[in-house]
Structure formats: C-alpha cells, structure tokens
C-alpha cells in the first residue's frame, strides 16, 4: 500500500459511520508491523485528537502483536537465549529498544569485571570480585523504594538506572558470570529469585538483590521452613531460561496490577500464556 493510500485510510478513522471506521482499523491492522512508521508519521501531522488517539491504539496493537510473534519464535528456538528473552519483554514498553544496544551495555559490565577477575581464584573469591564490580563500583542495587515499578522488570531500564528487582539483577549478574566461564545459574525460590554457583567441588548460593550475599543450602532450608513450605528440588537447583522469562513476565503482571494498569496486566498475561506449560512460581 502506498503512503497516499494509507493517508486516505487514516482520514476515515473518525468517520461517523462506526462500521466504516471499524473496517478501516481492520484494514490497517491487516498491513502488519510495516504500517507502524507510516502511522507514526501520520500521528505527528494529524491535528485531530480523536484520530491521534485511534492511531495510538493501532500502533500499540501492532507493536503488541510483534512482541507476541517474537516471544513465540523465541520459545520455539533451540537455545532460548536469555538476553533475547529479556529484550523481548522490554519491547512491550519500549518498542524501539535495540538488542544490540543491550549487548553492548552488558559487554561493558563484563569488561569492567574481567579487568579485576582472576580465573585462579577460589570460587568464593571469584564471586566477591564480581560483587565488588557490580555492586560497589557500578552501583547496581535493589530498587526497594519502588519495588513494584514495571521498570524493574525491563532490563534496559535496570541497565540505565542501576536499580532492579531480584530477577533482573540476577539476570545481569548471571550473564556476566557465565561470560567469565563461571558455573552460575538462576534458581526459582518462592518469593525470591537467586543464583547458584555449582561445579564438581562446590555448590553455594548468591542473592543479587542483597549485594551478592553468599549463603548455603542450609540457609535455603531454613528459609523454606520459615515460609511453611515443603522443600522441592527446584528450590535448590538451576532453572531454565524459559522459567526465568516466565517469572519475569509474572513479575511484570503483578507490577501493572499494583499500579492499577489492568489492561496492560491482561496483555502480559496473554504473553505468558504463549510460553506456558503449567503453573510455575510467583514473584
């Protein structure tokens, strides 16, 4: 469709005949995401607030469909790359964010850590080096003031503000540690996402939400006991990237609900359904 044809369609968005307006919206949506740049241009040049509002709705619908498509493709992919999954979640709120930019920012954190890292250190000391760089030098930390802010689930926001929730801080920490060839993975604890360092000789745990605090299996057992839960193997062992992305989406749903943004919460629930295979843990 040419730009002029699209212009003509947009001009009919505020037609008094609701059937015509609905048909026009359907036609524009059928063009798919390629229509977004045209619609953005039209929004800027259009002076009718009703038409602008309908253009915004169309753009959001198209962008949401794109997020859904990307998430389904990611779910079907062989390696389910974690950073790509987190990027897809971020594009729900920030459709223009580029995966390449996130890769560069993480590469910089890795480089800062690599400068101080020594592979011959003991496991605990390796973790202490990472803690020193991420939490002391680069000032990453828990967003306790705005714990339920949706931005805490958006990796681009956390990389920029250096404040996040347990899962985004763990993801950043884990991606850096894995690039340093360390056996660090995520663990799906109830109410708190943590990391485990596990090789042939050691297993211990890291709380990225508490500045990389190191703790033991016994500490987790005590925590589970305090929550009056029956211990499950999944509380102690590494989880998959798909479980991390599901949990990040559940965090986002809860954030939108706490903020009263119920329409967004419902949209994210539908994204979760696309990659769900039964009930996982909450926040």
Write the layout of secondary structure elements.
Elements lengths: L2 H9 L6 H13 L5 H10 L3 H28 L5 H12 L5 H18 L6 H15 L3 E2 L12 H7 L1 E2 L1 H14 L4 E6 L2 E7 L4 E5 L5 E3 L1 H10 L14 H18 L3 H13 L9
Which features characterize this protein?
283 residues, alpha+beta, 4-stranded antiparallel sheet, two-stranded parallel ribbon, 12 helices, 59% helix, 9% strand, disordered C terminus
Structure, described:
The protein has helices spanning 3-11, 18-30, 36-45, 49-76, 82-93, 99-116, 123-137, 155-161, 166-179, 217-226, 241-258, 262-274, and strands at 141-142, 163-164, 184-189, 192-198, 203-207, 213-215. Strand 3 (184-189) and strand 4 form a beta hairpin. It has 12 helices and 6 strands. It has 2 domains: 3-76, no CATH class; 82-274, no CATH class. A 4-stranded antiparallel sheet has the order 3-4-5-6. A two-stranded parallel ribbon has the order 1-2. It is elongated and about 70 Å long. It is α+β, with helices and mostly antiparallel strands.
What are the secondary-structure elements, in order, as H or E?
Answer: HHHHHHHEHEHEEEEHHH
Q: Biggest sheet, open or closed, and with what strands and sense?
A: 4 strands, antiparallel
The total number of structural domains is 2
Overall number of strands: 6
> What is the averaged pLDDT score?
91
Q: Determine the fraction of residues in helical runs and give it as a percent range.
A: 55-70%
Structural class: alpha+beta
> Are there runs of 5+ residues with pLDDT below 50, and where?
278-283
Strand content: 5-15%
> What is the approximate shape?
elongated
Number of helices: 12
Rg, alpha carbons: 22 Å
Intertermini distance: 45 Å
Side by side, the strands of the main sheet go 3-4-5-6
